[in-house]
Amino acid sequence: MDAEALLLKQLLGLLIPICGIVGGVAVALLWLGTEHKRRSQLLEQSHRERMLAIERGLPVPPLPQELFDPEDRVDPLDVRSRALRRGLTFVLGGLAVSAALAINRDIDTAAWGLIPIAIGIANLIFVRLGPTMAKPD
Predict the structure, then answer these.
(1) pTM of the entire structure?
(2) Is 117 exposed, middle or buried (0-12, 13-18, 19+ CB in 10 A)?
(3) pLDDT tens for residues 28-50?
(4) How many CB atoms lie within 10 A of CB 44?
(5) CA distance 54 to 15
(6) pLDDT category, 65, cuts 50, 70, 90?
(7) Which end of the chain has fewer beta carbons closer than 10 Å to its terminal beta carbon, N or C?
(8) Where along the chain do its domains lie?
(9) For residue 79, what are the CA distances in angstroms to 8, 33, 36, 45, 131?
(10) Which long-range contacts link 23-29 to residues 24+ away (Cβ below 8 Å)?
(11) Distance between CA atoms of 40 and 46, rounded to whole angstroms?
(12) What are phi and psi of 48, to 5 degrees?
């Protein structure tokens, strides 16, 4: 391997985590910005509606519930389905990793696939034994 190829390989190994970190931070900032804009537009719209009601002498409408109770709050009924999906994904992903490592390397290396399998089994146990909530009517 010549010096240029070695330098390129080292540079690529350095750029991958940097791009991952910068990309992750950029996505988080984009989400925060759009969420702030959405809430500020909702507040502005509600303010205009309330001011118009005051001008016309109508009863003032209440503030929208989304300002106080965000819609991204976790629904307790959805927790079990998410845990089931996550559990199946981890178990099947761990089996795939173990199989790939067993074929390409050896059985000792394939044991690394047991970590996601254990996480998936824990999620599936939660689905089976976790608290149940009745659906409100």
Answers:
(1) 0.49
(2) middle
(3) 999 999 989 988 999 999 999 99
(4) 10
(5) 58
(6) confident
(7) C
(8) 1-70, 74-137
(9) 46, 27, 26, 32, 10
(10) none
(11) 10
(12) -60, -40
